[in-house]
Structure formats: structure tokens, C-alpha cells
Amino acid sequence: ERESNGIITGRRPATHSSIVDALEDPRLEVEAELDLHGLTTKEAERDVLRFLRTEQSRGRRWVCIVVGKGLHSPRGKGTLKDHVVEALSRRAPARFVLAFRTAPRRLGGTGALVARLVDRA
Questions:
Q1: Which of 93, 98, 112 lies closest to 49, judged by CA?
Q2: Distance between CA atoms of 72 and 38, rounded to whole angstroms?
Q3: CA of residue 118 relative to chain centroid, distance
Q4: What is the signed CA dihedral for 75, 43, 47, 13, rounded to 10 degrees?
Q5: HEC string of 90-109?
Q6: Which run of H or of E encompasses 24?
């Protein structure tokens, strides 16, 4: 879901609204961060999957994925964020994610996504 102000939000249908509210909180404390600057979309998806799997196995719940704003991309428009959003929504990494959202400003704003991971079984 994209809001008119550019905020991106995604969540599983049964995810409680309090989780989405927590992702919006500017005081959110993430437990791990992955920086994807300089990667291709294929490399980024591979790294996101590995990162989410590892962090979930460590019992972490709140993570940040830095995708950048695309300022150094051709024509100043990056494709990495859209690709990562698609992966978190519909591809292999999605199985690890309850909800995600554009990060609060102090965690990267529109150049990053924060996510709440599924609790490990």
C-alpha cells in the first residue's frame, strides 16, 4: 500500500494494527540492520532473504533494511526499493515478515524499510 506522501506499508491480513503502529513510531528500536547500497536487485533479494532468515533464527523481531533513495542511480530513480517491497510482499522473503513500512526519519526515512518479523516456531 502506497500513501500519497510516499509512505509504503505492507502487512499480512491477520496482523494486529498495533504492530503497524509500532513500525510508525519514531522511537522504534531495531535489533538488526541490512544495508543494500550498491547491490543489484538480484543480489539484494538474496541478501534480504539470508538476513531475515538469520535474524528470525536469532529471535529478533524488529529490523531495518536500507535500500537508499536512488540518488546515484541512472536518472536519479532507484529500483531497489520497489524490488525489495515486492520481495517482502510476494516472494521468498515474505514468509519471514508480518509487516513492513517506510522507516521513521531517524532510521533512514524513504531510503529504508522497517519490518516486524514472524516469531520463530
A1: 93
A2: 10
A3: 13
A4: 70
A5: HCHHHHHEEEEEECCHHHCH
A6: helix 17-24
- Grid coordinates belonging to 104: 521513521
- Rounded Cα distance between 109 and 92, Å, is 25
Residue 2 carries which DSSP code? Answer: B
Query: Are the CB atoms for 80 and 67 separated by under 8 Å?
Result: yes
pLDDT digits over 2-47, tens only? 877 789 999 999 999 999 999 999 999 999 999 999 899 999 999 9
- The amino acid present at 86, given as its one-letter code, is E
What is the end-to-end Cα distance of the chain in Å, rounded? 28
Q: Which three cell numbers stand for residue 95?
A: 514468509
DSSP per residue, 60-76: --EEEEE----TTSGGG
What's the whole-model pTM score? Answer: 0.91
Overall average pLDDT of the 57-66 stretch: 97
